[in-house]
C-alpha cells in the first residue's frame, strides 16, 4: 500500500510542477489564419535545434526523477517511487496542464526498451541502465528492422556469434528512429541459423557509441532525417547484456512490440486538434454547405469518435493490469486509417493549393502531414499486417499461409517468407 494518499500526492505534485514550469494558458479559440499553420506528423529539426531540444527534454526528466516523479510506479531499487499506476496517471494529467519540454525522445526508450529490460535483462544490466534511462542520463532505441526483415521480423539476418564471455554482432539494421542521439539500443540477432526462424534469435543491449557501430541518417520524403541505417561491424557485447535466454529472442521482441502497439495506441484515434482546423478550413473555403463535403466531414468525425472510444477501451484493459492484446492492433489500424481519411478530406478541400506553395496560410503546410502519414501506416506494423492480426486473432480466420515456422532458417529461401 502507498504510504501517501493520492490527494496528498496530487497536492505535492502540483506544487512541484508550479515551482518548475509555467502553467498553460487557457485554451484559445482557434481562428483561421492566426498563429502557426504547422500540422506536420514528424518533427523536422536541423541537428543543432534537435540537440538543444533533446537537452531541454533530458533536463526536465532529470528534474522530475530527482523529485520522485520520474518513475512513479517503478521499483525503489531503480529509483522508482513504487506507487500504484493511478498515481502515475494523476501526475501525467497534472503535467499536461503545464508547459513542459517535448518528451517524444523517450517514447521508444521508456515506452518499449526499458519495459523489456525490466522483464528480460540480467541484474547487472538492470542496475546499469534502468535508473539512467528513467532519469534521461541515457536514451534508448530499437534495432529490429532490417532491409529484408520488417513485417517478417523473424527473417532477420544480423548475427551474434559467441566468443568466450562476449558476443560478436555483425549485420545491418534499418529505419532505426533516433539512433543518432541514442546511447543504447535493444537489438534482436540470429544466434542459431540451424533452428526454425522464430527460434534461433536472441536479444541484446548494445552500446550505440561504440566505434564498431556505424550510424547513417536516412532522408525521408518530408525532408527530415529522423531515422537511420545502422551497421554492426563485429561489435563485442558482454554476455550479461543478453536479454533473456539464448534463442528466446522472439519472446523478448514480442514484449517490446506489445509495448510499442500500446504506446502508439495511446496516441488516440488520430488527429486531436486537427479536427477543429479542418472544420474551420471547410468554412473558410465556403464549403460548409456543400453536401458532398459535409458528408465526408461527418464520416471523418464519426470514425474518429468511434476509434477514440475503442482506443479508450483497449487502454483501460491495460490500466486494469491486462497485457496489451489484439485490441491494440485494431486501435493502431483505426488511427492510421483515420489519418488517411483526414488526408483525403484535406486534399478534397484544398486541391492544388496543398501541393503548390502559394504562401497562403493553412494550405501548403498540410503537405507535411500528408507526406508523413504513410510513415505512421508502416511504423510499428503496417496496416496490412494489423489486418492480418485482427483477422487471425479477433475474427478467428485461418493463419497467413506463407509462413514456414518449422524448417531450419538456413534452409529457407529468404525473401519468400511472410509473417
Ligand atoms: C516512421 C517509422 C519509424 C520506424 N522506426 C523503427 C525503429 O525505431 N526501429 C525498427 O526496428 N524499425 C523501425 N521502423 C521500421 C518498421 O517497423 C518497418 O518499416 C515495418 O515493420 C514494415 O517493414 P518493411 O518496411 O520492411 O516493409 P515490408 O515488410 O517489406 O512490407 C512491404 C509491404 O508489404 C506488405 N506486407 C508485408 N507482409 C505482409 C503480409 N504478411 N500480408 C500482407 N501484406 C504484407 C506491407 O504491409 C507493406 O505494404 C520504422 C518505420 C517507420 C515508417
Automatic annotation (TrEMBL):
InterPro entries: Acyl-CoA_Oxase/DH_mid-dom (IPR006091), Acyl-CoA_Oxase/DH_mid-dom_sf (IPR046373), AcylCo_DH-like_C (IPR036250), AcylCo_DH/oxidase_C (IPR009075), AcylCoA_DH/ox_N_sf (IPR037069), AcylCoA_DH/oxidase_NM_dom_sf (IPR009100), Mycobact_Acyl-CoA_DH (IPR052161). Its cofactor is FAD. Pfam families: Acyl-CoA_dh_1 (PF00441), Acyl-CoA_dh_M (PF02770). Keywords: FAD, Flavoprotein, Oxidoreductase. GO terms for molecular function: flavin adenine dinucleotide binding; oxidoreductase activity, acting on the CH-CH group of donors. The keyword Cytoplasm does not apply. GO terms for cellular component: plasma membrane. SUPFAM superfamilies: Acyl-CoA dehydrogenase C-terminal domain-like, Acyl-CoA dehydrogenase NM domain-like. Residues 247-395 form the Acyl-CoA dehydrogenase/oxidase C-terminal domain. Residues 141-233 form the Acyl-CoA oxidase/dehydrogenase middle domain. Gene3D superfamilies: Acyl-CoA dehydrogenase/oxidase, N-terminal domain, Butyryl-CoA Dehydrogenase, subunit A, domain 2, Butyryl-CoA Dehydrogenase, subunit A, domain 3. PANTHER family: ACYL-COA DEHYDROGENASE (PTHR43292), ACYL-COA DEHYDROGENASE FADE34 (PTHR43292:SF4). Belongs to the acyl-CoA dehydrogenase family. This is Unannotated protein. It comes from freshwater metagenome.
Amino acid at each position: 500500500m502507498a504510504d501517501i494518499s493520492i490527494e496528498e500526492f496530487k497536492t505535492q505534485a502540483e506544487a512541484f510542477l508550479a515551482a518548475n514550469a509555467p502553467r498553460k494558458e487557457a485554451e484559445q479559440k482557434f481562428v483561421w489564419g492566426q498563429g502557426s499553420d504547422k500540422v506536420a506528423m514528424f518533427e523536422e529539426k536541423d541537428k543543432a535545434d534537435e540537440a538543444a531540444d533533446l537537452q531541454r527534454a533530458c533536463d526536465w526528466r532529470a528534474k522530475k526523477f530527482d523529485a520522485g516523479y520520474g518513475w512513479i510506479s517503478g521499483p525503489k531499487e531503480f529509483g522508482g517511487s513504487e506507487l500504484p499506476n493511478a498515481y502515475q496517471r494523476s501526475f501525467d494529467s497534472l503535467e499536461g496542464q503545464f508547459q513542459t519540454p517535448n518528451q517524444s525522445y523517450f517514447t521508444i526508450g521508456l515506452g518499449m526498451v526499458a519495459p523489456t529490460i525490466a522483464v528480460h535483462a540480467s541484474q547487472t544490466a538492470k542496475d546499469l541502465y534502468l535508473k539512467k534511462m528513467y532519469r534521461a542520463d541515457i536514451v534508448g532505441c530499437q534495432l529490429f528492422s532490417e532491409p529484408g526483415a520488417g513485417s517478417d521480423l523473424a527473417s532477420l539476418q544480423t548475427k551474434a556469434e559467441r566468443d568466450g564471455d562476449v558476443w560478436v554482432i555483425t549485420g545491418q539494421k534499418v529505419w532505426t528512429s533516433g539512433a543518432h542521439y541514442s546511447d543504447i539500443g535493444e537489438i534482436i540477432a540470429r544466434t542459431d541459423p540451424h533452428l526454425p526462424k522464430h527460434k534461433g534469435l536472441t536479444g541484446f543491449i548494445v552500446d550505440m557509441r561504440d566505434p564498431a557501430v556505424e550510424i547513417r541518417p536516412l532522408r525521408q520524403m518530408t525532408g527530415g532525417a529522423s531515422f537511420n541505417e545502422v551497421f554492426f561491424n563485429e561489435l563485442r557485447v558482454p554476455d550479461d547484456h543478453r536479454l533473456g535466454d539464448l534463442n528466446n529472442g522472439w519472446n523478448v521482441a514480442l514484449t517490446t512490440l506489445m509495448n510499442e502497439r500500446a504506446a502508439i495506441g495511446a496516441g488516440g484515434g488520430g488527429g486531436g486538434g486537427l479536427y477543429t482546423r479542418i472544420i474551420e478550413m471547410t468554412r473558410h473555403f465556403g464549403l460548409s454547405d456543400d453536401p458532398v463535403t459535409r458528408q465526408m466531414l461527418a464520416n471523418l468525425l464519426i470514425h474518429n469518435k468511434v476509434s477514440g472510444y475503442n482506443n479508450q477501451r483497449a487502454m483501460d484493459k491495460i490500466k486494469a493490469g491486462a497485457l496489451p492484446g489484439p485490441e491494440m492492433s485494431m486501435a493502431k489500424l483505426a488511427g492510421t486509417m483515420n489519418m488517411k481519411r483526414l488526408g483525403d478530406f484535406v486534399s478534397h478541400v484544398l486541391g492544388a493549393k496543398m501541393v503548390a506553395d502559394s504562401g497562403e496560410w493553412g494550405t501548403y503546410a498540410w503537405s507535411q502531414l500528408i507526406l508523413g502519414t504513410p510513415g505512421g501506416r508502416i511504423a510499428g506494423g503496417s496496416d496490412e499486417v494489423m489486418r492480418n492480426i485482427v483477422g487471425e486473432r479477433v475474427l478467428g480466420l485461418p493463419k497467413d499461409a506463407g509462413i514456414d515456422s518449422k524448417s531450419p532458417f538456413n534452409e529457407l529461401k529468404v525473401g519468400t517468407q511472410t509473417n
